[in-house]
Amino acid sequence: MLMAWKKIMAAGTSGMLLFALLLITLTGSVSAADAAAVQGAEQDVFRIVALGDSVTAGYEPGMTDPNTKPYGYAERLLEQGWYHGRSALSNYGILGLTSAGLLNYTAAIKDGTATTPDGIQAGLRDPRISQFAALTPQIKTELAAADLITITIGGNDVSSLFLNVKEMATADFDAQLEQRLAAYGTNVKTALENIRAVNPAATILLADQYQPAPKIALGANYTTLMSAAERFTGVVDSITASLNKAEAPVLTAHVAAQFAGVEASLTHIIGAGAADFHPTQLGYEKIARVFAELVWGEYRTPAVPAMTTANAAAPMSIVVKGIELNTPNKPILKNGQNFLALKDILNAVGANGKWDNKTSSATIVYGGRTVVITIGSKFIKVNGVNQAIDTPAFLQKVGKEDKTYLPLAALATGLGFDVNYSSKLRTAFINP
């Protein structure tokens, strides 16, 4: 494990972050007061900032709608963070970005001044680029507060060279590759120094570049491009080694090795209609796994399988404080919500509770909060205040006993827990 997990001290702050992110999305800006509130409220959340190109953005062929929600390596990394506690992600991956563009972007972030799309890189086609350019003061605040900064960059520096390898003499290819790698090295090292000026201590993970084309598509040129990818990795390793410190790690995420020999299943270059270097969903998972193993020493997946027609009505996986629930009293899915037996909830969250037969209600106490849930009621009481819920608690016959089943998400929210749901993993993450 690369770093020890931060202790959670504050509760109920994720709504503040969501509010601020909505403001950014809708208005393109956030007030200084809101930014300060987010920074203060989220001081105990593990914060991830992802910078870089379209691989960081999670792009796949066919993503033309700017409102499309990608599911790339960064989003998967956020899910891995939820396994360990409260986590938040800011993804500033820019389609078409080169290392020169990253250098310009980090310089503007370092200065804390809004820039323009051309001030980052001329000709960028990312529909969000104007917003990203205007947000550099806010991004500086987020970058300064980050615990982890991830970067994928460089594919756009060498892609045209890789595409033309069949038409180029070996000596010409090698000379141009050396020139581009030298420029890449200079640009990225300076960009990382800009980031370090903003945040002196965060862990920075810089990915190397996978070679996207399988041997069947390249023939004899496969060896040439694999050698080029190895040279690229050498440059990345040199950059990270020059900046790495025990108190401020800068490390290489070696993703290229994960693609070697299995490129056809991990990239869209075959069957995309036109050459496309971007990862498939399996490819993005491979990248996320490399990053996660550097940070936490593991990449976790839920025991409950992904949703299929056969198990569409099955309860989702539930992870409470990093532990996936596995009890003899199985969760019950009702009206799209998961319900757990009272005893299992108390054990999972480490709360105290009691059952009142006269009122058919359960009282749960945790961290200064008291939640009362009554069978059949469409309200729960949180510190004496009614809060509406969609589906009431109920009694369920389990063997010869009547078990009290409580709505997990409503209870967790009432107790001040952070609740996140991954539709891709069919998993609810609940953290104090």
UniProtKB/TrEMBL annotation:
The segment(s) forming the Copper amine oxidase-like N-terminal domain are 319-430
* InterPro entries, alphabetized: Cu_amine_oxidase-like_N (IPR012854), Ester_Hydrolysis_Enzymes (IPR051532), GDSL (IPR001087), Mao_N_sf (IPR036582), SGNH_hydro_sf (IPR036514)
Keyword match Signal: yes
Arranged from A to Z, the UniProt key words for this protein are: Signal
Supply the Pfam families for this chain.
Cu_amine_oxidN1 (PF07833), Lipase_GDSL (PF00657)
Q: Which SUPFAM superfamilies match?
A: Copper amine oxidase, domain N, SGNH hydrolase
**Highest taxon above the source species:** Bacteria
This protein's record includes keyword Nucleotide-binding: no
Span of the secretion signal?
1-32
Q: What is this protein called?
A: Copper amine oxidase-like N-terminal domain-containing protein
UniProt organism field: Paenibacillus auburnensis
Instruction: Cite the source lineage.
Output: Bacteria, Bacillati, Bacillota, Bacilli, Bacillales
